[in-house]
Amino acid sequence: MAAVTADQTTQSTSGTAKAAGRAAGTAPDAADAARLAVFEAAVAADDRIEPRDWMPEAYRATLVRQMAQHAHSEIIGMQPEANWITRAPSLRRKAILMAKVQDEAGHGLYLYSAAETLGTSREELLDKLHAGRQRYSSIFNYPTLTWADVGAIGWLVDGAAITNQVPLCRCSYGPYARAMVRICKEESFHQRQGYELLLALSRGTEAQHAMAQDAVDRWWWPSLMMFGPPDDASSHSEQSMAWKIKRHSNDELRQRFVDICVPQAEALGLTLPDPDLRWNEERGQHDFGAIDWTEFQEVLKGNGPCNEQRITQRRRAHEEGAWVRDAAAAYAAKHTTPSTRTAQPAQHVEETA
Ligand code: FAQ
């Protein structure tokens, strides 16, 4: 999609933006100030910013960064679980897991499409991912060692994703907020299937219970890291919250997640691997132990257990899928030739005459 032009501000969907679009078009400085004022008023009023609305370049760049990272996480996140599709313990579990992994691909597609409304393209974003110039979530650089990891991912990773993403349904950028509504519904199903899987293992044999506990022990801390660095080290939070892209800080959401998980772990009959985890009556929240931020930074630098494997597999999948993209493009081109365009209305006239 072409970059938004000054003229396009007049096509804004919000009433206030329309007024500013009309106000714009005099002196360039005054026009810029007017557009910025409209944008800020729309954000303050909780109006949605839409693709054709004028927006500050930094707002656009922040959205592209976050949405691209989010989309990349969805498609890279298919890998750890896909590792278990051929080894699922029953046909029912296999069918559920295949549907879940397929859902993650769909989430990636909604998010790439939403990012494209900002004037970038899916090809450009994928090129940046493959070149290591855009990130994906730290969590997907950990291995899935046993079947119980599929349950732990559903319960903890999808659970953390929902906690983070429900507020994104109220993000100020319309296409991102709308994409998140459906994604959250599907993530909710994913979280429950993980919980149910872990419950079955926890109530199973001693060995199955131990397998579930081991998976929770390994996924707990990386799941807490998914929310990003602590607030005082979060470079983007303040501005993103002012723009209402983010509605809560990283630490607020992390705390919410811990408070949700504690009673669920008890119901599962599993423990969370944190000796400092306890209810704080005064705060009305759980205290929890220190997160190893050195590990988080190492994973972000590419030194996690599976960084190399994930990106190599992603590049390979992209190369091996080239023929599918070529075929789809050829098919689309064939069906948009001038002869096809003229043939279709004629046929329609005949059929309805
Ligand atoms: N991993 O200033 P902040 C899922 C980076 S989807 C990697 O706090 P921000 C579904 C950050 O980019 C999971 N990098 O950043 C699923 C920044 O880098 P920069 C993905 C991280 O953006 C389940 C720097 O650190 N969800 O799981 C991480 O304000 C199962 C400073 O951080 C989303 O993407 C991290 N964990 O807040 C799929 C949700 N955290 O620019 C398959 C949308 C931070 O300095 C299977 N994103 N960084 O180079 C967000 O809500 C935000 O982007 C945060 C980070 C909260 C992740």
Question: How would you describe the overall organization of this protein?
Answer:
This protein has helices spanning 15-23, 28-44, 57-76, 78-82, 91-116, 122-130, 148-165, 174-202, 206-225, 237-242, 250-268, 293-303, 307-320, 322-334, 338-352, and strands spanning 278-280, 285-287. The chain is mainly α. A hairpin with a 4-residue loop joins strand 1 and strand 2 (285-287). Helix 1 (15-23) packs antiparallel against helix 2 (28-44) and helix 7 packs antiparallel against helix 11. The longest helix is centred in the middle third of the chain and has 29 residues, at 174-202. The chain is globular, with a radius of gyration of 23 Å. The chain starts with 14 loop residues before the first helix and ends with a helix. Residues 1-25 and 343-353 have low confidence and may be disordered.
